[in-house]
Amino acid sequence: MPHADIEGVNIYYETHGQGFPLVLCHGLSGDTEAWVNQVPAFSQRYQVITWDARGHGRSDSPADPNTYGLTRFAEDLKGLLQHLGLGQVYLLGHSMGGGVVVRFTTTYPERVKALIVTDSFTGSGLPTPADIRAMREKSIEIALTQGMQAVADQALQENPNVMGRVRGDAAVERAMRMRYAKIDPNGYAGSVRTILDNEFPDDLWGRITMPTLVMVGANDGASIAGSAHTHAKIPGSEYIVIPDAGHMAYLDQPQAFTDHVLGFLSKVEAQVAA
Asked: Does the model's pTM come out above 0.90?
């Protein structure tokens, strides 16, 4: 299995197809498998790179909580690009991954040819609302004391992102439980702290000058305000609200999600060629 050693932490990744590189960054509790509906279409036009953030999937999960954070994840992404010998890329991030790609872009803007931020409050730089912070802090305690099955139980009862996805569907609930079961408790706790500490100074927005698409599901109550804020802070950015989709728009409406991404990148390429 392909791994990149980034400062002693093994980061798992996959590459698909050929062409200009498109890097996909998953959200909290996700991994490379999150993009199963998008990779076949994306890889017909691009070299698609998916990866498991530290604490997720087949990447290492350091026990030290100080080895997590948006800055650390952004540096892991930089290390992965260096490992693959890639310069400029297209970046797409969902939820926590949206925070990662925004942090990476504000730190290394010359490396990003186009930016896509989807269903991401973390990418907004806004402080986490008190009720969401309380729910997330409780999930950290549960992960470290009771394990990930108990975290799944809590998510199904209290996390609007998960509840909106499951909606009483037994098959979807099983898939969500399997998703949580694959995560190391330390990795989960460190990653939750990452999304709680997502604030950054307003002046960093000025570094994002490349073409940018902000997308959000119409029913994503947890992210729609943050997504609108991100769009407002990036002059010239495109903003799309996907109907009949919640926080996981790439799963709720996979074809629409895929079409919007490919359409946006086609416009970026047409502008470059003009």
From this structure: yes
Q: Could you tell me the residue ranges of all domains in the chain?
A: 3-127+200-273
Instruction: Quickly count: other Cβ atoms within 10 Å of residue 271's Cβ.
Output: 10
Residues 6 or more apart whose Cβ sits within 8 Å of residue 171 = none
* CATH classification (class only), 3-127+200-273: alpha beta
In contact, 35 and 8? CB cutoff 8 Å:
no
Q: What is the pLDDT of residues 37-96, one digit of tens each?
A: 999 999 999 999 999 999 999 999 999 989 999 999 999 999 999 999 999 999 999 999
